[in-house]
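__Protein archive entry__

___
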Amino acid sequence: MMRLVGAVLVLLFVASACGRPAVVLEAPSPTPSDNAPPAGSPSSTPSFPPAASSGPGPSVAPVSSLTPCQRELECNTVANAIAAIDPAKMNDHLIALTSFGSRDPRHPGHAKAVAYIKEQLGALTYYGWTIESQRTVYQGIPLENIFASIEGATAASSGSAIPPPPPATTWVLVSAHYDSTANRTPGWRPAVDPAPGADDNATGTAALLEFARVVSIASREQLRSRLVLAFFDGEELFFKGSAAYVASLAKPYKYKAAINLDMVGFNPLADRLDLLWYTSASAELRDRVLRANQTYGIGVSPLNAQFAADGNTIMDAAPFGIAGIPSIALCQRYGENDATFPGNYTFHTVADTPDKITNKRLWLKAAKLTLATALELARS
């Protein structure tokens, strides 16, 4: 997560609006997928080619062998879906993501992280996911956003007597940035030195990977909006990956909500989260998150909703909010430290390691709250 004073943020926003970073788009695929994430007008549509796997990928149990609340008909409620989130699997992803040394796009570990994310998602294409990517360049640094999208099953694929929803005309996005930095470590060299980024933001990335697994076994017939999981690059370079993506979207925007997870695993004192919203258009989305916390007994407390247009924070929800798309971000603490948060002083340092994830209960609650809100939106 990036933080800047308001004045600097204003300048960045102006630069983003008036002088967008150069975006290098891949050559169009011969047969573009109908399930691709929104990608701009026909004359400037970036191609999102299928991700190449770096290996056979993890084994996925057949539906017939899945345990209760892991079969499609038993996971057809939001409550059962969020109950299927496995914290052990999230932790496995976090350990893997931090094992690459660094996920800074200038570091060799970045390519390993990209391959890992694509491999994990690629193992789930059987369940209807479309895996795609968008490449951009910022100051000569290559960046790669990765997307996984899914929507309601068709009549042919559902095998159900219940009529499936029509093709999705709206989308719901859940995002986390997978890049990392240790720029608060004196003398840190981005191309050489480690930046494990456990809290910032392997916690959010691992949660998204687990969402893909859980949604794979939930009832697709209930999805009336396309659900897009976005793994953004370049957030630590002032959210350049998400900004480039928003700049590529065609108007009118089809996204009805964008939810961002960034730093949700550190707080030894309380199960608190801060819910940041950026414009008045996000007020309804904010209220949905607050209601989901109560409706499903998730237990985030305190859950503080804060208007974040003062420019003291930069996260990947911001470009969506600036574009007028309802957007919120969930993080473990926004603003000054207080009695319910001591401050994670290892973020943006080489010490942001897995052992600093001091509240895995909070991490799980953040994942449940995000997925519950996203599924409610996608099913409405």
Notes: Residues 360-379 form the longest helix (20 residues). The CA atoms of residues 45 and 314 lie 27 Å apart. DSSP finds ten helices and eight strands in the chain.
